[in-house]
Automatic annotation (TrEMBL), chain A:
Primary location class: membrane
Mode of membrane association: Multi-pass membrane protein
Taxonomic source organism: Herbiconiux gentiana
Protein name in the entry: NADH-quinone oxidoreductase subunit K
Keywords, sorted A to Z: Cell membrane, Membrane, Oxidoreductase, Transmembrane, Transmembrane helix
TrEMBL record, chain B:
Record protein name field: Na+/H+ antiporter subunit D
Species of origin: Herbiconiux gentiana
Membrane found in the keyword field: yes
Main localization, broad class: membrane
Subcellular localization(s) per the UniProt record: Cell membrane; Membrane
Keywords, alphabetical: Cell membrane, Membrane, Transmembrane, Transmembrane helix
InterPro entries: CPA3_Na-H_Antiporter_D, NADH_UbQ_OxRdtase, ND/Mrp_TM
Membrane topology: Multi-pass membrane protein
UniProt signal peptide: none
Family to which the UniProt record says this protein belongs: Belongs to the CPA3 antiporters (TC 2.A.63) subunit D family.
Residue spans crossing the bilayer: 6-24, 31-52, 72-100, 112-132, 138-156, 168-189, 209-234, 241-262, 274-295, 302-322, 328-350, 371-389, 409-428, 481-504
Amino acid sequence: MSASITLVVLMAVMYGAGVYVMLEKSLTRILIGFLLVGNATNLLIFIMSGRAGDSPIVDGNGADTVDPIPQVLMLTAIVINFGVTAFILALIYRSWWLSNLGDEGDDVAADDDEDEAMEIDQAGVFHASLEDDDAAVRSILDEGSDLGDPDDDDESGAGAGEQPSEQDRDVMR
Amino acid sequence: MSDILVPLLVIIPLVGAAITLILGRHPRLQILISVLALTAVTAAAAVLLAIVDSTGKPAVVKVGGWEPPFGIVLVVDRLSAIMVVVSALVLLGVLVFAVGQGYADRDRDTPVSIFHPTYLILSAGLFDAFIAGDLFNMYVGFEMLLAASYVLLTLGGTGSRIRAGVTYVVVSLVSSLLFLGAIALIYGATGTVTMALLSDRIRELPLDVQMILCAALLIGFAVKAAVFPLSFWLPDSYPTAPAPVTAVFAGLLTKVGVYAIIRTDKLLFFDVPLQVPLLIVGGLTMLIGILGALAQADVKRLLSFTLVSHIGYMIFGVAIGTELASGATIYYIVHHILVQTALFLVVGLIERKGGSTSITQLGGLLKAAPFVAVLFFIGALNLGGIPPFSGFLGKVGLFEAGAASPNPLVYVMIGAGIVTSLLTLYALMRVWNMAFWRPKKDVEGYESPLIESLQEGPTGSVGTMTGTATATDTETRTSPLMIGAATGLMALTLGLTIFAGPLFDLAQRAAGNVSTPEPYIDSVFPEGALVPVSVDEGGVG
């Protein structure tokens, strides 16, 4: 089995950068870390398919074709990562919402039964209050300029947003 | 017959999930569909178990007609069938409990519309992981059930649940990526992900490569199974979820990890000497877990710690490695799924009746809710391993199998197991003394060495927050369905005791399938694994 050294180095950098960013407290950085590590893993699967070759469509003379299975595995893994990323984004949004609006936010978001999560009609309330949500968010954004960063409550927004992009640049190199 | 039944185990819940999602505005229809779907799966799984057990051969289905190792195979041997039957029963019981809780909370018109679809997807993922015949399909099953569990854990999106959810999601993601990375490495080394073929090819690898691959896979599974030292996330995340969700998580999610460890150890890495590391890890899981439980005032947290601790017994059983031990492990897994789920449901009832789950605030439950008291008492004795309950039988089986092993370390582990068992009993009997026996009027200003220096749940956990806030509202609101579901599951644990003989024999037969890789391989490749290992992919060394 042979593999491209560029890919191996790229994968290693992505793993390293991803794990480093993941160790931060802020949820957004954890998400970025997860994306990096996830894609590094996809790359690892890809590297395992061995040397490059022709496209893996069997047309009778499949002498020099590339191994298709890792690509299939990768595709599945990418889709799964995509779904999970969407969920984490929602989680980050909700976390930001709670840390900035707190109980007040719950009043906007749903009725008083918010705590009793089994009780509320997610669908009904959700659709009804989307506009209220947006309005509340907008009013908060207008009020405080330092709340623009969707961090979780463990860390204030100061300086966030710088570091992930640095990491990104590392990876792009 | 089994050709049709095997895929149905996954298809029925998935179709059910789709239908319930469409029926989001019709809660009653949703309930009907999910109950029907899970009942159908239970029936299908039971028939499948009967077929597989009577023929003695695993049922193999080639999905889409592709021959293994090129296509996906689903393999149901006795172990898979047992796991699917038990999970289906537990899922059904908890679903009934959740429906009852919905009715009790006067929300006939407004239950959470995403609960049922998510719950069914969780079931589908669970069954898929149990019947997967290749590693990647198992990964997909894991991801399905994990994605569903993220949603269930953060249901309602309260602050405490989001906080617990973040820990849980991040830890699960890391373990999934480890698992995926391990699959990639295994593919690189062997050129296949079909487990039956892997079993053959891994044995041709050098031992050190085998060990690295095995460690990568096991670490991923150990996080999911909450094996010490990778268990820290569990007690922080499970207790905040709604009672039925916690019950399902506690009963089933960790056991998928244990199931995967069994497969890894017995089927894939048959040659890797895992006994000593697994024994040590298992023993530490038992002891550290139960010591954590002793320090808890919150019953849900306490039970989560006992859950971690009892995973240690299963790891112990896997570590011994004989057929006898595998049988005892399978019996113990079944026992633990049932009793842990039932206990969490009973705690859900306690929360309703007593308005809290902290033993420093509970009292007088024996008078207020005698039936719940009986349920808890049976469950506690069972989990603590008091004869004649199934917990005792399972542990005796494990110790017996262990005593036959030549490794002296096993005796240390047996000692650790007995200590853990007693400490479990101590922790649960303290709950009994405080919550059930202590009169309600004594709760204020109660002083006793028993409840000194106990750790309450974190502020904002369900036990302390909603418990006190809504105590007066929820006090009397339990529905017969909730009590019925808890009773039903507790009755199943008693059934496990009464029919221990035949069930133990079944577990032993399942172990006969599992403890050597040959039956599994022969069932997938009846003519032998003749697919040649190409030099290009195979010999990475």
